[in-house]
Amino acid sequence: MKSGAPSPRVCLMLFLFVACAGRQSGTPEEQPSFAGAGGQDEASNAADGGPANPGGAAGVQSDVGGRGGGITASGGAVAATGGAGASAPPPGGASGGGGACPPHSSRGHLGKYRDKFMWLGSGETFTPAFVMLGDNDGTDLSKITQSSLDAFLTEMFDGHGFNGVHVVVLGQWFHIGNYTVSASDRTPDTRTFAALKMILQAVHAKGGATHLWLWGDEQRGQTSRSLAGGAMGPEEKALLDKIYSELNEIPGWSMGYGFDLHEWVDADLLKRWHDYMHAKPKFMHLLGARAQKLEVNQIYGGLDYSSYENHKPDYALFRRLMQHQPEKPSFSEDRFRVRGRDKDLTAEETRVTLWLASLAGGVAGIYGYLGSETGTSRAYPNKAALRTYAEFWRGRFFKDMVPDNTLVTGGFALKQSDTHAIYFAQATKQVQYSVVGAAKQVIAVDATTPYQEIDLGVKEPGAYIFDAPRMSDWALAAGRFCR
Fold this sequence. Notes:
Low-confidence stretches: 1-30, 36-49, 53-58, 65-99
Mean pLDDT: 85
Largest sheet: 8 strands, mixed
Radius of gyration: 23 Å
C-alpha cells in the first residue's frame, strides 16, 4: 500500500457515509407527506416546449438495433409497475443491475413527494394508472366476490400492467347495489364497508393503489346534497366518521369527492370536507376534487393533489397540468374510456396516453375498456403493449426526475440529474439522443410490442443515433436501475 493512502476499512466507511447521505431528501420541507400544501390556485405557467434536439450534432455516433448485448426478453409477472421506481436508485454508471426492488409489502401508505405520487413505506414514486372496476355507471359492490376480484386483478395487473383500481361508491354508502342518495339515508351499510375492505386489502397486497369516488353526479341524485342535512351536514359527517373508523388503517387508497363537481360544489364545501378529514388523528389518505370542466383552475386549491378533467390530453397539456400547482401531484381524473364516443380514447390512444403521462412527470389517470356505453371494463386488445409500458417503467421512475427534451431529437426525455435518463420517440426508425455525465448502460425497447430489451452497450458522454430494427415508438433508458 502506498504511503498516505487510506486503509480499505476507511474507504468502506467513507463509501457508506456518502451513500447514506445521498439517500436524504433534503430539507424538512422536502419530506414525503400525506396532506397537500394549503393555499389557493396560482396562475398556470406556460407549458414546456415540445420535442427538442440534443445540443449539438457534432460527434454523433451510431447505434445499430440488435448489436451489442443482443435482445433479451423480460420474465416474470408485472404487478403494480406502471411507473414505480426506487427512491434511492443505484448511481448511474456503466454496469447494469442495481439490486432488488422493494417488495410490495413494504410500500405502506400512498402519499406524495412534491409533484409525484409516492409509496411512503418504500419511498417509491410512480405514475398511478387506475383501471375501472365495474361499468360506466359505477362499481356495483354487491357483485364483487373475492374470486372475481382476484381474477380481475390478475388480468389487469399481471396481464396489462395497471397499478391501481378505481372504485365508484355513490349511494352504496347507505345501500349496497343502489347508487342513488335520498333524504332517508342515514345509516351506512355494513355490507358496503365489508366489500371495500376486501377490495382495498386485495389491491394493496397485489402491490397497487385504490382510488375511491365518494359521490357522483348531482343530476342523477348521487351526491350528499340529496341527504336530509345536505352536503357536509350531519349525515355526511357521520358517514365520513365511519369511513375513517373502518378504512383509515388500511393502506394504499385515495379519494376524490366525485365527478361533474363544477355543477354542485364550491371551494368552501371542499375545504370543509378536506379539513374535517385531516383533523382526525393520523388520517393517512390523499383527498382531491376534479377541477372546472376542461380547465386547469381548481375549484379549491388547498386539497392534497390537483385534479383535472381532460378528454384527449397530449404531452403539452400534461405538462401544463403539472406546472399549474407544481408543489403537489397531478391527476387527470376524468375516466379515459374506450367505448366509441368522441370524447373517448381508442386502445392505441390509451397506450400513448400512458407513456405521455409518465414522460410529463407522472400524471395519474383512470382507464377502462368498456366496448360500449353500457359495457363492463374488460381486457384491452393491445394489453401486451400496455404491459410493456408498465414493465419499462418498473424501477425507472424517480422522485427527482424532471423533463428535459433537449436530450432527444423529436421526442421527450426525463432525467435524474446526470445519472439516469429516459428517452422516447414516436413513429420513427431512428432515435438521436445524448448521454451526459458519466458513461452509462443504454437499452432500447419497442413500446408497441411485448417487452424486449435491445442492449446498446455502455455509452460515454456524447450524442448518439439509435438505428432501430423497424419503424415504431421507441423508449430508451440510460443508467443503472433497480430491476
